[in-house]
Amino acid sequence: MTPANPTPTTRRTLKALLIWLTFCFLPLPVLAAEDPTTVNIQPQQEKGFLDKLSSFGQRLGIGGNQSTFLPPDQVFILSADVVDPYTLRVHWDIADGYYLYRSKFHFTPVDTQGVTIKPVVLPHGKEKHDDNFGLMEIFYHQFEAELPLQRSTTQAQDLKLRIDYQGCADAGFCYPPMKQVITLSLPAASGPPPQRSASSSAASNDNVISDQDRYARSLAENSLLLNMLTFFGLGLLLTFTPCVFPMIPILSSIIAGQGSNITTRRAFTLSLIYVLAMAVTYTVAGLIAGLFGGNLQATFQNPWVLGSFSLIFVLLALSMFGFYELQMPQGIQSKLTEMSNRQRGGTFVGVGIMGFLSALIVGPCLAAPLAGALIYIGQTGDALLGAAALFALSMGMGAPLLLIGTSAGKLLPRAGGWMNTVKAVFGVLLLGVAIWLVQRIVPAAVGLLLWGVLLVICAVYLGAFERLQPEASGWHKLWKGVGIVSLIYGGVLLVGAASGAQDMFRPLAKLSQASSNKATAPQEGLAFKRVKGLDGLQRELQLAAAQNKPVMLDFYADWCVSCLELARETFSDPEVQATLNKTKAVLLQADVTLNDAQDQALLKSFGLFGPPSILFFDSRGKELSRYRLVGFLDADTFEEHARAALNL
Q: Phi then psi for 216, rounded to 5 degrees?
């Protein structure tokens, strides 16, 4: 007797039954942890039962491709810990391509007397039209929530907590509702519970996410076009940061070096080549950092490279001043002229080389959008989307450069002595870029001295020491006034350098401090304790935890322009210092100037790509990753951020 073939309806019913049996009998992971206040549900390695059941279903012809979906304990990795006697924190790490439903979370105490959970305010998720449940809010990548507790006793006790949740895969497969029961040890309470309003709780959960993680998440969730437009706009905002601004005189000097006969079309072409070379270099360097964890730009921040590149700018400036014919022998003059002409844009290849070198050497800055793209590349390996975002970011940074370079070609004077004056101005700017580069590798007082010398020499050429004739034009009077101002400020810088000052914006700070009659001198910046490598950091974190103190860790490098800007404008602010002093936070600083093996290992341990980066740790030595900072922040923004991170 031949058995009848199962109908489509029967096959679908058997298939649904098999899936239900698979996840009903799939063993849940064992909940165990050395620390009773923290429970991590680790991915389960034994999958024999699932594999056998899936194979059995495939032999029946009803298993489909369900074996391609991961077990739920590998997709939704749950951890929970005790924040304080009245607060719990639950966290899920969610695999790529999967999500959790906001409405499916439930938290219930089990077999525990005297502890209840107050209403929990969950953050809002991304809206999605689900085929099973309709319009829902979901969470990708990670989810975290704080659970406020109501306790009838202040004594230490154990809490058994049941957590219900449910999630699905983007491919269209949904897991059945899941539950975990975990045991947490609540410490004794020394006072009443902290007052948390619903609004403040919502704000702490909704808005507290690091900027770089937000950008990385947007790459994963948004369309390619929206990502390109977003990162292009972010690049525009980064244009006039200290890392991009020096490229303006570089490109402008390339255009001016072409002479008075340059056309607008040629100026646009040269500018476009420079910007494209810079953008491609940023993109390739970013891909290397994201995929392999190596910061290509940091490797170029050494004395030999910076010194050589500074020398190139000095040679370019001297060629614009016309000093070769006046001061150098004919043989050396011809070689230097040939080299400088080739590099300042005499050929398209020379302009491309200058754009390549500018991206690697002039602007080694890390900002939150760049870090977000690198995090996305490192986590997903999606080099194509990551490269597209990096290129859009770089083109956004280069768009104003393209506009300025093209405008310079149109606005340059066509003939006469004005052209020599313009070249001299750009020569001075190039000397400024050379000093700006070399001060990364010389003592701060030496950099201050170089700026002072440059300003005094400029004052001489502007006629600061010349007598004005009665018939002098308004322009002559203006330039003499500029020269006098330059002379005065240059002299102040020279005095400041002699006194050991380090900041060109506060060159007399040392003198005013020395002449003060106060018993304690005003603090110029935060008093950081330097740490080296992972071992050094772990020792300091353990020491701070023993003293029940939070920690702020600053990643710094001498060649990091944004790090110097943070020290000058943010860490020297009295409000910032008062906030950190109020928390009694331990201030640590990891100097990664050398970028050696220890520095790279420390950066890689936190998934960082370079300075400036600021991390916060609670009083137990656990990093508060939601409050991680990358890039420069002004004093007011940083002070507000530090207050939230250190729980003021």
A: -65, -40
Q: pLDDT tens for residues 134-151? A: 678 889 988 888 888 888
**Whether the Cβ atoms of residue 137 and residue 127 lie closer than 8 Å to each other:** yes
Contact 364, 559 (CB under 8 A): yes
Residue with tokens 């292009």: 232
> Which residue, chain included where needed, has tokens 């137990």?
620
User: Do the beta carbons of residue 181 and residue 31 sit within 8 Å?
Assistant: yes
Q: What is the pLDDT of residues 574-617, one digit of tens each?
A: 888 888 888 888 999 999 888 888 888 888 888 787 888 899 99
Q: What is the DSSP string of 269-326?
A: HHHHHHHHHHHHHHHHHHHHHHHH---HHHHT-SHHHHHHHHHHHHHHHHHHHTHHHH
Phi, psi of 404 (to 5 degrees): -65, -45
Q: Domain residue spans in the chain?
A: 8-189+198-207, 220-439, 442-512, 529-645
490: Cα within 13 Å, side-chain hemisphere: 18
Structure confidence at residue 588 (pLDDT): 93
Overall CATH class of domain 529-645: alpha beta
Q: How many CB atoms lie within 10 A of CB 30?
A: 8
Domain spanning 8-189+198-207, CATH architecture: Sandwich (2.60)
Please say whether the beta carbons of 32 and 67 come within 8 A: no
- Going from the C-alpha of 38 to that of each of 104, 548, 568, 605, 639, the distances in angstroms are 23, 18, 40, 21, 30
Query: 3-state SS of 160-200?
Result: EEEEEECEEECCCCECCCEEEEEEEEECCCCCCCCCCCHHH
Q: Rounded to an integer, what is the distance from CA 129 to the centroid of its chain? A: 33
Position 30 confidence tier, pLDDT thresholds 50, 70, 90? very low
Q: What is the reported pLDDT for 411?
A: 64
**Position 142, amino acid:** Q
Residue with tokens 């489909």: 64
Q: How far apart are CA 262 and CA 255, in angstroms?
A: 8
Q: What are the distances in angstroms from CA 68 to CA 10, 48, 95?
A: 23, 15, 14
Q: Which residues contact 467 (CB under 8 A, 6 or more apart)?
A: none
Biggest CA pair distance of the chain: 124
Whether omega before 612 lies within 30 degrees of 0, making that bond cis, reads yes
Residue 554: which pLDDT band, with cuts at 50, 70 and 90? very high
How far apart, in whole angstroms, are the C-alpha atoms of residue 591 and residue 560?
11
Please state, in angstroms and rounded to a whole number, the distance separating the CA atoms of residues 48 and 406: 66
Residue with tokens 């060649």: 559
Q: Under a CB-based contact definition with an 8 Å cutoff, are residues 286 and 386 in contact?
A: yes
Q: What is the pTM assigned to this prediction?
A: 0.58
Residue type, 604: K
Q: What is the pLDDT of residue 35?
A: 40
